[in-house]
Structure formats: C-alpha cells, structure tokens
From TrEMBL:
This is Beta-ketoacyl-[acyl-carrier-protein] synthase III. Residues 244-332 form the Beta-ketoacyl-[acyl-carrier-protein] synthase III C-terminal domain. Catalyzes the condensation reaction of fatty acid synthesis by the addition to an acyl acceptor of two carbons from malonyl-ACP. Catalyzes the first condensation reaction which initiates fatty acid synthesis and may therefore play a role in governing the total rate of fatty acid production. Possesses both acetoacetyl-ACP synthase and acetyl transacylase activities. Its substrate specificity determines the biosynthesis of branched-chain and/or straight-chain of fatty acids. InterPro entries: ACP_syn_III_C, ACP_syn_III_N, FabH, Thiolase-like. PANTHER family: 3-OXOACYL-[ACYL-CARRIER-PROTEIN] SYNTHASE, BETA-KETOACYL-[ACYL-CARRIER-PROTEIN] SYNTHASE III, CHLOROPLASTIC. Its EC number is 2.3.1.180. Residues 111-189 form the Beta-ketoacyl-[acyl-carrier-protein] synthase III N-terminal domain. One of its GO terms (biological process) is fatty acid biosynthetic process. The keyword Transferase applies. The gene is fabH. The last Arg residue of the ACP-binding site is essential for the weak association between ACP/AcpP and FabH. It comes from Microseira wollei NIES-4236. Homodimer. Its main location: cytoplasm. It is found in: Cytoplasm.
Length: 333
C-alpha cells in the first residue's frame, strides 16, 4: 500500500481539436466598428475558430481526447478518470459523462470542473491528487470551451477576443519519478465582477406569495483594463511560487506556456520573469482566447511541431474569471 502513495505523474499524450469555420479580423470589421490593425495591435489576434450551430462541445472535446489517447498509446477502456475543464458545457448538468460514453471509456468516472480560463491548470492539479494517492492510474484531462455561444457580437471590446476549441492530455502514474514538479493555485472572488458570464433572473409567481427565478445567462462582460492589471501582476507571482515549490529557477524553464488571452499580457509576463521570446509558446494569433482549451491546444501544437521535446520543463499558467489563477511546472513526456 505504501508504494501506491509514492506514485508520480507523467504526461504521456496530448491532442486538440478546433472547429473548421474561422473568422478573421476583416470579417469582424463587417459586424462591428473595428479593423484588423485595431484588433491585432491591441490583442495579437488575427483570426479565431468558431463552432457552427451543429457543433457540440462534447464532440470537439471527444475528438481532442481521441488524439491524446492515440499519442499516449492507451485504450479508452483503460482510463480510470475523465476531467472536463469547461465553462460552456452542452448540458448545465455537465458534459464529461457524455464524452465518456462517446469514447467508450466504460471504466472511467467522469466529471466537469469549472474554473474558467484557469480550468486546465486546476484540472491538472486535481488529476494529480488522484494519481499521487494511488486511487487512479490513468487520467484524461480535457480543456474545452465554446465561448462563441455567450459572446455579444455587437460589443467590439469582447467579441474580437474569443474562439472555440478543445485540448486534452493523458496523465499516468509513474513509479519512482514525478513529472509534475510544483504548482500554486489562487482565487479572489472580490474581483469576480471584472469578468463574468452572469445569470439574470426574472421572477415568476407560481402561487400568491411564492415566486421562483426564471431567466437566461447574459453575454460575457469584461473590464479589460482591470483584467490586464490583474494578470500582469499575479501571473508572474504565481509562476515564481510554483517554481519555488519545484525547487527550480526561471533559468531552468525550457518553455513558458501561458493561457492565450492577449499578446500584451503574454509579453508583459515574460518580460517581468525575464524569459526570452524564444521560450514563449504562443498561437493566440490563429485561435484567439479559447479559455480552458488554450493551454492544451498550444501544448499540442508545439509538441507535434517538434518544438517541445521529451524531458523539457514547462511553466504553464492559467488566469481568468473568478478571478482565478494558477501555475503548474511539469516535464513533458
């Protein structure tokens, strides 16, 4: 039994999926008063992938999961746990179980985890606890969001930012070693109002004196200036704390892999940590902000391009609504 509690973690496979349809900045300029130059200079985004009305989050996530399982050379039947990090499930009760069924992962327990753009990092740390305690050995972690469902396409301050997609990784028990070197997670609900997708209720009287709330979720609202200030201050701090727990210095990082929110944030964080551009993983220009999917999509792209290699040390950090933020230091492969 003691050996079970000494299990480490290896990240053995990754995969991604994005919708076929894309809208570039010129296309958005036909919807709202904006331009390619305005969007690109302020965000770094050139285009974004958008799910069609026929696309579902579970289908996109399942495709990404299949790619990750194939790379890890593991069968769906061998999975013990599936964690879906998302803020936009197809079903408000959750979509992880449907993905489990679509994969044929008959042995796996499945649940949704919501931490917005920090969801993938929070999910990685959550998965690690199940592995380290010896409860599960094979875990599939998916980050997926279809934020286009909840964007106000007349609001140029937010509609230019978001895209849709899914990314996944397989985490497996590794005896005698641990590739998750350190982590740090944070939340601050006092700043919740800076970035939200809020429910708006309208009272409906059932019988005299008894009313219930009926309503819908409102489009995404964001105070961009405050979110920027939060990110450039808190993200370097949380990465440094995670590095301290990993007993590593910034110089020992091979790659900085940040949530793909805004190029200015990526540049500012790298600058504050004194990490050169050559070590920063980024694909924001092609996909926009895909929330919980952004880190695993960028990871998968870099791995398949041969940029990230086995044994490379990666500092990953997610940050966003909640407000939540966190960092995980891990070795690939």
């Amino acid at each position: 039994m003691l050996e079970q509690f000494q299990a480490g973690i290896a990240i053995t496979g990754c995969g991604a999926c994005t919708p076929q349809a894309s809208v570039d900045n010129f296309g958005l300029s036909q919807i709202v008063e904006t331009s390619d130059e305005w969007i690109a200079t302020r965000t770094g985004i050139k285009q974004r992938r958008l799910a069609s009305p026929d696309d579902s989050l579970s289908e996109i996530a399942t495709y990404a999961a299949k790619n990750a399982l194939a790379m890890a050379a593991i069968a769906p039947e061998d999975l013990d746990l599936i964690i879906l990090a998302t803020s936009t499930p197809d079903d408000l009760f959750g979509s992880a179980s449907l993905i489990q069924a679509q994969l044929g992962a008959s042995r796996a327990v499945a649940f949704d985890l919501t931490a917005a753009c920090s969801g993938f990092v929070f999910g990685m740390v959550t998965a690690a606890q199940f592995i380290r305690t010896g409860v599960y050995r094979n875990v599939l972690l998916i980050g997926a969001d279809v934020l286009s469902r909840w964007v106000d396409w007349t609001d140029r301050s937010t509609c230019v930012l978001f895209g849709d997609g899914a990314g996944a990784v397989v985490l497996q028990a590794l005896e005698g070693s641990d590739r998750l070197l350190g982590f740090e997670l944070k939340s601050d609900g006092t700043q919740n109002h800076f970035l939200s997708l809020a429910y708006q209720a309208q009272p409906q009287e059932l019988i005299p004196g008894v009313s219930v709330a009926k309503g819908i979720y409102q489009p995404i609202t964001m105070n961009g200036q405050e979110v920027y200030r939060f990110a450039v201050k808190r993200v370097p701090e949380v990465i440094e704390k995670a590095l301290f727990r990993a007993n590593l210095s910034v110089d020992q990082i091979d790659w900085l892999l940040l949530h793909q929110a805004n190029q200015r944030i990526l540049d500012a964080v790298a600058s504050r940590l004194k990490i050169p551009d050559s070590k920063v993983i980024g694909n924001l220009a092609n996909y926009g902000n895909t929330s919980a999917a952004s880190i695993p999509i960028a990871l998968d792209e870099a791995v398949r391009q041969g940029k990230i290699k086995t044994g490379d040390t990666i500092a990953a950090s997610g940050f966003g609504a909640g407000l939540t933020w966190g960092a995980a230091i891990f070795q690939w492969g």
